[in-house]
Amino acid sequence: MKPLFLQAALAFGLGLAATAPRAQTNPVDFPAAAPEAVGMDSAKLVDLSQWLRRDKLAVRSLLVVKDGKLVFERYGDHLQRGHNYELYSITKSVSSLLAGMLVRDGQLSLDDKAADVVGRWRPPLAAGFADKREVTLRHVLSMSSGLHYDFKPKDDPIYYGAPDRLALAAGTRQKEAPGRSFEYTDINPVIAAAMLSAGAGMPVEQYARRALFEPLGMVNAAWERADDTGLVSSGWGLRLRPMDMAKIGQLVLDQGRWQGRQLVPQAWIQQMTTPHAAPDFGYYWWVNHIVRGEPEVDAMGFKGQFIAVLPQRRTVVVMTSMLSIAGGLRDADNVKTFRSVVNDYVLPAIERGAQDGADANALQRELDLARQAPTEPGTSADPTDTPRL
Q1: Which of 154, 167, 140 is nearest to 227 (CA)?
Q2: Global pTM?
């Protein structure tokens, strides 16, 4: 299957978004621009914010970056640019970028066997992985390992309080041959975290900071929820500001380049965003999951965390929220809400183009209202869901 992405020739300027408090500024955040300056209709973005505010939807942040410019930056619940958020499975998508960097440097291979890597890294667990010898990094990144883990509906130890998550992975059984079918299971990113840490020669979160977060100029980034052995999961626990989520999206849009530097190989971006074991899933990135009529890839997290990349539009859309999880993996209510955000408002704002006589202040007035407006969460909050400065 041919890759969906074309090389984009965008570059980031230095600057500060006008709507952010001075204390939150960062010289490598996106420069701000009016929607009309990049050929968008700001009235449609006002409509978008009014819909969210009218329905009291618990959208904590919503950003649109077009042509490398921040044209829409909306916060709710009195939040601001500096807050970070638990991103849940967007952690997987960031982990995939790290995997590509390690593969480039020869520290890992897609064909590396989990049993070999984990066995060398954690010898006491080698016996537990002996029956999983055909499971490779390729399989855990594409959710096709064939491993079965008996998840408990509530408070499963893999998420809450497991002293050793990798030991839980060692105790799984091989339900079917690796590579045969897609099954979205969070045992895979536990194994991925171990393989990435072993390949990097350091905890994966330390490697991420050095190789990705610092070059991208991220602020207030944290990778938390490690088990008692110190291993974080590649499936959850990453906390980023929405602005830094947008940087991840722009990095993918620009085929792995950031301000002229090739951080992630272009070939990996293409592999990562090409379907493998499922028609809508690459290596921890979803393909045409939000927009189906044109090339699009996205990262998706529990309760409504999203990064959508639209290469033909040179646009990245980011959202954090606390919306309903009813409806399952692909069609949860929060996914449907984000699809509406992108398809019913952002894309029409681009397609309508800049309109004569646009009220330059209407959008800012609406954003000020949105920050103060009450919302009604659509799902229960865990302690980790609290945004932090």
Answers
A1: 167
A2: 0.93
